[in-house]
Each structure stands twice: as structure tokens, then as C-alpha cells.
Amino acid sequence: MSYFTFDDKQVYYNEIGIGMPLLFLHGNTASSKMFSEIAEKYQQNFKVILIDFLGHGKSDRLQKFPVDLWFYEAEQIIAFLNEKNYSKVNIIGSSGGALVAINVALEAPELVNKVIADSFMGEKPLKSFTENVKNDRELSKNNEDVKMFYYYMHGSDWEQIVDNDTNAIIQHSKDIGVFFHKHLQFLKADILLTGSKKDEFVSMVSPDYFEKVYGKMIKKIGHGKSHLFSEGGHPAMLTNLTEFYELSMNFFDDKS
Questions:
Q1: What GO annotations for molecular function exist for this entry (predicted)?
Q2: In the CATH scheme, what is the code of domain 2-124+178-253?
Q3: What is the pLDDT of residues 194-215, one digit of tens each?
């Protein structure tokens, strides 16, 4: 197992395959284990890098999560890329990891080649999600399938990680309310936004939520594209695994 140091704590990472670096960034309450199946598909073409953000998976724990969580996690990725002397990497971020990926591309454009941002809320938190997250998370703790997911991702201390994440989400929505420090017009990397039309987190708000939110973002960025899967849930990249893999490889191979 490999680690790098950030804020005097150990951040776990694993590298498999050879070629251009491709980072997978996990979502909230998850770890890099969420990518264990799909990552294998990429290792013949890329050096696949799996990272557990601080407080998650095999990385050192945090007593509580910073309020500006997705920016703090982006700082971890930038520190990692600089330590490894990686530049012009490709990034796939899912859900909260998509927010981190965009933050990395905004803050350190020289380090990033292309970004796929999958199944995320947009530029700011979704009110219906943040208002209900505490209750929803408490219910999830009593759902055997979800508990098994949490345990698989983190181990026996999963409940503290879920609580830390819940508290950060609530506090962020009150104190900050936006995911990115810089305006999207400064994003230079080629970007693809993906999601499922049946994503359970946003489809109840609006059946065309991603279409509207992603469309506005691409307009602000000034380039990029989006792809919405008609089937699958959250996250789209794992519930449409084969189709997503083919889409992503075409995106990474496109030299235009």
C-alpha cells in the first residue's frame, strides 16, 4: 500500500497499469473501492490512480471534516500530483468526486488534461438534498444494504465517517453554498459531464435536472459536452458501466 502526506496525515493511493495517469475520485461516504470493477477496464491504456480522501477508506481519519470539503479534497489531489511530478492527467470524478475534479482543474489547470464529471449537483448544493440529508443518512444507517456498502468502503468506523460527511454537507450549505472558488469561465481542461436521467437524487426535483444544470455550466465554461444515460441510477458511471467506459475512451482518445 502506498501513501503520501498531506496536513501531516497519510493519504492512501494505489496505482495500476501503465500509460498516461488517470485519476478516479470517489464520492461522499465512499472510497476508491467504489471503482474496483470499472478501474480494471482502464489499466491496459492508462496508469490508473485510486485515492482515498482523508477521512475515508484506508486514509488517516479526521476528527471532523472541513466545511469546504470538496475544495479541501482538491487540495489533496493537487499536492499528490505535484509530489509525483504528474502533469496533464485525466480525471474521472463521480458525485462529490466530480466536484473535486472540477476544483482541481480550476485551481491547477497546468496539471489537468481532460475531466469527466459524473452525477453531481452542479455549481451549488441542491436544497432538497441538504435539507433532508440528516434524516436520510439516519435512515440509511438502518438499511442493511447501505450499511454493507459503508462497511465495505471504510471498515468498522463507517458510522463516524457518514456523520462527519453529513455535518460537513449541512454546514457547507449554510456557510458557503457554492462548490467552486473560481468562475467556470477559467476552466481550461476539456470536460465531459455525465449523468442518468433516472438518478434518484435529482430526478424527483426535475426529470430534466441534469440537462438544465449541465447546459448552464457548459455555457459558462465556453466548451465541453454532456451525455445523459436514459437508464441507470446514481452514479451513472457505475450503473451504465459498459456504456460509460466506451464513452469515456472515445472522449479521452479524441484529439480535436
A1: hydrolase activity
A2: 3.40.50.1820
A3: 999 999 988 878 889 999 999 9
